[in-house]
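User: Can you model how flavin mononucleotide sits in this protein?
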Amino acid sequence: MNVADALRNRLSHASLDGVATMDLAEVHELVRLAQQAPSSFNIQFTRYIAVTDPELKTRLREVSINQAKITGAATVFVLLGDLEAHVPYAERMRGAAAAGHVPQATADYLVNAATQSYSVPARAREESARSVGLSGMALMLAAEERGWASCPMIGFDPNAYRTILGYDERYVALMVVAVGKPGAAAGARKPRLPVEAVLRVNGGGF
Ligand SMILES: Cc1cc2nc3c(=O)[nH]c(=O)nc-3n(C[C@H](O)[C@H](O)[C@H](O)COP(=O)(O)O)c2cc1C
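Assistant: Here's the modeled complex, given as structure tokens:
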């Protein structure tokens, strides 16, 4: 499947069958592919929690406005933004400089720039949202190519997710991607606005 086909075929499935399961190797492969998404400075703000356990899915559904796709999914991928991702990034860059992979001056410059930007909480949050969006799309396209149906979701309570899944305050759940096999309610491609309505070439007002 080429990228154009994956983009045209992907849709937010109305239901997932609740029968299909996903093995750990497949979970890893999907996340490995999602990780190919770009991020500012290659900081890699996105963290993934893959929920395959039926009991956990049931608990998550209860705090996801009872959306059946949560229990219908083979795997519920919870995409977290790391609001302090610049800290491990700095460690990584210092390590790379010490090992001679990156010139010290380059590492210092990148670490200073990234730290200045993302130690501001609002900017860290904004960048995390951008990164999780890109990771989520990469995950859905990879799933599409590999024969899975998916649905991105924001209809959930992030505080309850933290309680149920147990992750630190520095991480915030920004998107869920439910991945499984299509259920009975198929769902259809939704129309997009005409290009003329969303595009201006070389400026011009909206
Ligand atoms: C950030 C985001 C959050 C969404 N949240 C939900 C959701 O909670 N439940 C749901 O059924 N669909 C959800 N959707 C799916 C959208 O309704 C869907 O992407 C949109 O209608 C376009 O349809 P398509 O994805 O099939 O092209 C979400 C999509 C995005 C991008």
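A couple of observations from the model: The chain has one domain: 3-84+127-198. Residues 3-84+127-198 form a domain with the NADH Oxidase fold (CATH 3.40.109.10).
User: Helpful, thanks.
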